[in-house]
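Open question from group meeting: does this chain pack into something compact, or does most of it stay loose? Before anyone orders reagents, we agreed to write out a predicted structure and look at it together. Recording both the input and the output here so the notebook holds the full record.
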Amino acid sequence: MGKKKTKPESSISDESLFNRTINGSPKDVATDEESLSTASSHSKPPALTQIRDAISPYLPPPVVQGIRYTDEQLLERGGKQYLGGEPSMTILATILLAFLLFQLVRNMTYGGKAIVDDDEAALAKELKQAAFHHTILFVGNSQAGKTRLFYHYCYNQTKNIQTVISLRPNIGFVNNIRFMDYPGHWEMSQLPISTTDMLKNTRIVLVLDATKPVAPTATILNQFLQHFSRASSIPPPVFVACHQSDRKGAKNPKRLRLQLRTELERIFQLDDNDNHPRVTGYQSGQPLVLEKLLPQLAFVATSSESQTGLDDLDRFIKQGTLPEKKLTRR
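Structure tokens returned:
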């Protein structure tokens, strides 16, 4: 007897699928469409693969080759079990997430005790809340290191200090001394200290970044000189902290002094042309002598990292004594 021929299983399956699609119930058709949709979604590359494909055109070829080589080595050693199909991207994403979490935790735990509230009444209360013998006023352009010195003396803290452009001065009181960190972008008129108070009980620490040009510092110093000239008074003592002196490219105090004098001469000449009032101690057409403008003046190399010059600064803050050996005449 001859064997009865049967259709291959695949043919039956295809025919059955065709019949159900044409004649079958809506439920059967919906089920098949859902299966096709699921299969399509499974073919979509993983998110990390999509990210890698998106950024690869913008990366240098050696970096792309390094990622590919790293993935191959890790996958050969069974890394897929722990890192998935994109080991390099998984590692980079984990590092990025850890960094973001670290920043979030640090921001949440940062105290910021010295930041004064923007409210004028709160500022006035802070200024008068403690008795003090004299004021130490930190001035200088932004990012020069004023706030780090302020925290060093007020809170004995020099590391992990976050600084931003302040809207109000930072204020602290330690051992009958009031410390004020004057915002670098402020005008002289915004300083919440009376001229009389400044002249009698204030010592100025002018902080400049020894690695950068002195023009912004000269502009700030000119504001103070103009202010004192209008008051017809001798300026308070000024300690010029040539800060971050231990960094590469930092200029020494003697060079910074010469550059600051040259920049002040340029500003004064422009003021002469604009008929601005002259600063006391400056004569047009004559060489500028800084000590005629600021009789009590010293330039000292300082650093919060290496503690360079902070002994001299300590004596100035506590006793008002300037290091005589640092005073150099023209």
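Observations to bring back to the group:
DSSP finds 13 helices and six strands in the chain.
The two ends are 126 Å apart (CA to CA).
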